[in-house]
């Protein structure tokens, strides 16, 4: 989370006492509680029992000028009821598992560290994903065997979207936020435990049933996904192995949502590291014997590792909060209704169906087309994945603000998030377009992946980037629609319209333009969806100021266009055959410098907040190392 300079209270004036209410202070706005000084050990030292490497729990800020007349500040209520108020000068031990830690003030330093931790581990997971793709490209190339696996790969792709990223988490985090808000208000029993008891067993049973059905009907699934596949038997075997991820991804997504709602980000951010490590290890060990089936087995093993990485943390977190007084239904918060879950999952399913259209149309093209689409999309979407890390961290805060009834705080947070994610994704898109040949050559051109495969992947990747901003906006806006935990079918309708545009455009363009037409159809469809979602904000969602958001997006778009041209010129000046690193480094540095300088000159709020975030993190790092 970022804070703009005009929103940061860094002066030495007297702090206004915090109101004695269970609500959190406005996040990122001019707060009544100043940020702790850089030299205050209490502000940055992790509490006892904190997980190694986890973001420090938000320290309890001190008044900048304590006086005897400063009112005492109550400690947030836990399940045992309100605690005795303490004077402001008394340090309060805060660990993520301590009672009241989830209701403590959210400081800029905590959000900066949480975002940085999530981004670092996500980058590590993405890099391992690239290693996975490199292993597949090196051992199996871009032929029929890889195409068969990528058809089976549709199952984990859908499962990840539905159960970890855009589906289950969007429904569960508001439910957990409401339960935590009720717990903070002293509701009898434990609303969090009641929510887990009422949802987890049923969801786990549903996940297991769907996994079994997919395995049983794998031949029919393959026939629907890729009717023109030359070797369907291999794809069927791989699909039966990858079907297990429906259960494991579902459990992993449930744990991630619960932990993030509790402001625990280490274990959820590490799941893709564990997942891709399992795939890479299985491919390297069993690939020579099992062929591409080893990659499908790696998906099954990696899914189990995702659960193992989180379940112990969630178990300890739930055990650390014993229920007080009544139990069972008395402690339950607003239940997560089936209609809400259906609305979220159907939207995510509709969004991921773009991949089905691509695979279906790609199966009619020569061998290797699906592989080129896959490699191009994986690289092109890295900037989108990194930009949405901020929304991953702030989504629980937006949901909690709405649970507390603070719509203004939620709107301010969403508008700043949109500005920052647009800044990050457009800078990344400029790098991808300007340095596409060097990126693909460095990552994939070895073994069975030839120079022709590189050229085809580069062409597709550059077209994909046209829809990156829209993909990112959809990922950010959909969280706003469901952050209050209310049912709305408008996002599903918007996504259905975009999917229809993708299908129609792709069917018309695949003949004359091949894979380029499929990529262009993807960009056109998701752009329509993003426009509809932005236009629908207001009564259906958080009432952001649409004209202000659009005006803010125009500045980084212009900066990205100029930075792309500058980066392409820089890479063309360095000719190092067989060694793409120098040209890639020159292009990245040029794009970054031009984009930031031009963005600041144009007054782009995303560039300003990004630099503020970097300064906030850098100021705290030396103090953390000195300890």
Q: How would you portray this structure in words?
A:
The chain has 627 residues and is mainly α. 68% of the residues lie in helices and 0% in strands. It is built from 25 helices and no strands. Helix 5 (168-184) packs parallel to helix 9 (245-261), helix 13 (338-362) runs antiparallel to helix 22 (515-535) and helix 17 runs antiparallel to helix 24 (581-602). The longest helix has 33 residues, at 108-140. It is globular and about 65 Å long. The model is unreliable at 1-101, 322-334 and 622-627 (pLDDT under 50).
Based on DSSP secondary structure assignment, what is the total number of beta strands? 0
Count of discrete alpha- or pi-helical segments spanning 4 or more residues:
25
- The N- to C-terminal Cα distance equals 25 Å
Secondary-structure class:
mainly alpha
Radius of gyration from the alpha-carbon trace, in angstroms:
25 Å
Please state the overall shape, judged from the principal axes of the Cα atoms: globular
Regions with little confidence, pLDDT below 50 for 5+ residues: 1-101, 322-334, 622-627
Q: What percentage of the residues does DSSP assign to strands (E)?
A: under 5%
Element string (H = helix, E = strand) = HHHHHHHHHHHHHHHHHHHHHHHHH
| Mean pLDDT rating | 76
| Helical amount | 55-70%
Largest sheet: none
In short:
The protein is an all-alpha fold and 627 residues long. Helix content is 68%, strand content 0%. It is globular and about 65 Å long.
List keywords for this structure.
single chain, disordered N terminus, disordered C terminus, 25 helices, 627 residues, mainly alpha
